[in-house]
Specification:
This protein is 41% helix and 13% strand. It is α/β, with parallel strands linked by helices.
Length: 511
């Protein structure tokens, strides 16, 4: 089970084509992070031991998943309060990565969050460097692993063998027995998270991470927070703007999560968004969207009754794995030909290609090791979200979900019941607060063909940030995220805003 509100434009590419780099150089004499007095205001209530800490930038180390990045990339560790309500108490280590600005007219740091929640900024930032090369001359490119993610005390809730065993759990249960197994598996996952995370479990919320960001801003000696948030990173950016409006600098929110949607609303939004992307894909292949959707839904129904054989020893393509495999290539138009091939193979009785796509989304390597993005994602999102829909409530709404999408509706509907079922920690809110009176203009970029964060959420974010604060830029394109996706209009507008402070006219449309 994997909720889909996470940015996988990068991880999707990595799933199909993985690359690594060498080691980086150290810089021990960085004046901007050497500790002591700073020009940037310290966050209120932060003890001096944290506010005046030094960042010891040096060589990045290899991780279990990838070699260390080379070139100009450096890594450091920031200490932050474990519990922001007791900032003098225990601390947590946060892993950071950066490449210093290459030019003389440096603006400051540009902090990136790549979504999820649960995506590793330390692993992702170097591979995204080419996409934002136009910004590197004037900004230090900085990212981090948020608390509970990867190198920042990342949470692993379940062993690899247990994850593979759970692939046989039916995520769209049709019988009482299947429903019980689905909910039992969900509860067991939560227990595994609690055992692994311990006291951290209650301190990985988006609000906690937003407060980490403001400490980061101060320690990096930035008077203002310059930020690029993608997918879930847009929600994080909105929460930061609400908490620290006077510290908002130049902020980009791309592939925007709807801040006004609750648990059911998010699921319905995504069902609509992925169905819309699927229909665009089907049109591109010359198929009637309605008939093509029905054909795929029929394939999934057949897999529910009888999984397909694959070339992976001992593994079969289940309905849930097929669903995940179909989702992945819809994140980017570049993935559409791969989807065509995988669907054709499945229709011929071979589930290998859809299984490979599902493994990419689930971060499973050929040796059977799984990544932990979805573990961190679930721990963070279930702490954020106080809603716990029951299976009875979900079943009442399934006809609505299936009407919105005959392909994705049932899976996303049932996900609302299973995702945080019997979760050991209470959630914090129904929807995040992102209003930011007094903040500088925030550029909100929405893509009309975005499957995971449908376009309507961008308009809602711009409105909720506040009048003259949320500035809307629309791209009529395909895929999850707009910047760096092929639109010179979008890239130019974003670059002009970040580099020159030029705010585009609200409502600008790039075709």
């Amino acid at each position: 089970m994997a909720r889909l509100v996470r940015w996988t434009a990068l991880t999707a590419a990595a799933a199909l084509l993985t690359a690594g780099c060498g080691s980086g150089a150290s810089d021990e004499d960085d004046e901007s992070t050497s500790g002591g007095r700073r020009s940037a205001a310290a966050p209120s209530g932060v003890p001096d031991s944290l506010a005046s800490q030094s960042l010891d930038w040096g060589r990045c180390e290899d991780t279990a998943d990838a070699p260390a990045p080379g070139g100009d990339w450096q890594c450091a560790t920031l200490k932050a309060p474990l519990d922001w309500s007791e900032p003098d108490g225990d601390t947590i280590d946060l892993a950071l990565i950066r490449a210093k600005a290459t030019g003389d007219e440096r603006i400051g740091s540009l902090l990136f969050n790549f979504g999820g929640p649960g995506a590793s900024g330390v692993s992702t930032m170097p591979s995204y460097g080419d996409t934002v090369s136009s910004l590197h001359e004037r900004y230090d490119l900085v990212s981090w692993d948020p608390r509970g993610v990867a190198a920042s005390e990342g949470v692993r809730c379940r062993a690899d063998e247990a994850i593979e065993d759970a692939e046989s759990v039916d995520s769209t249960p049709d019988t009482a027995a299947e429903e019980q197994r689905y909910l039992t598996d969900a509860a067991d996952f939560g227990k595994g998270c609690q055992k692994a995370a311990g006291k951290l479990m209650a301190h990985v919320s988006t609000t906690d991470t937003a407060r980490d960001m403001d400490l980061m801003r101060h320690v990096l000696d930035d008077e203002k927070m310059h930020y690029f948030g993608i997918s879930y990173g847009t929600e994080l950016g909105g929460v930061y703007a609400h908490l620290f409006p006077k510290n908002v600098g130049r902020v980009i929110l791309d592939a925007v999560v709807d801040p006004g949607a609750d648990t059911m609303g998010h699921a319905e939004n995504q069902a609509r968004g992925f169905q819309r992307a699927l229909e665009d894909y089907l049109r591109s292949t010359g198929q009637d969207p309605k008939q093509g959707s029905r054909k795929i839904a029929d394939l999934l129904d057949r897999l529910d009754a009888e999984p397909l054989p694959t070339s992976s020893p001992g593994r079969r393509l289940t309905q849930t794995l097929a669903f995940t495999g179909i989702v992945l290539p819809l994140y980017s138009k570049d993935g559409w030909p791969t989807l065509t091939s995988a669907l054709a193979a499945a229709e011929e009785g071979d589930g290998s290609e859809l299984l490979a796509l599902a493994d990419g989304y689930n971060e499973r390597d050929p040796s059977g090791r799984y990544g932990t993005t979805t573990h961190s994602q679930r721990v963070i999102s279930c702490l954020d979200d106080k809603q716990r829909p029951t299976s009875a409530e979900t079943k009442k709404l399934l006809p609505t979900f299936e009407k919105v999408s005959p392909v994705f509706g049932a899976f996303l509907g049932w996900d609302t019941a299973g995702w945080c079922h019997d979760w050991p920690v209470a959630g914090q809110h129904e929807t995040p607060e992102v209003s930011a009176p007094g903040a500088a203009p925030v550029l909100v970029v929405g893509n009309t063909g975005d499957p995971a964060t449908p376009y309507e959420g961008a308009r809602r974010m711009a409105d909720e940030l506040g009048e003259d604060i949320g500035v809307m830029l629309t791209w009529k394109g395909e895929g999850h995220g707009a910047y760096g996706s092929g639109s010179d209009c979008v890239d130019s507008a974003v670059d002009a805003y970040l580099l020159e402070g030029t705010v585009p006219k609200d409502g600008t449309v790039c075709s």
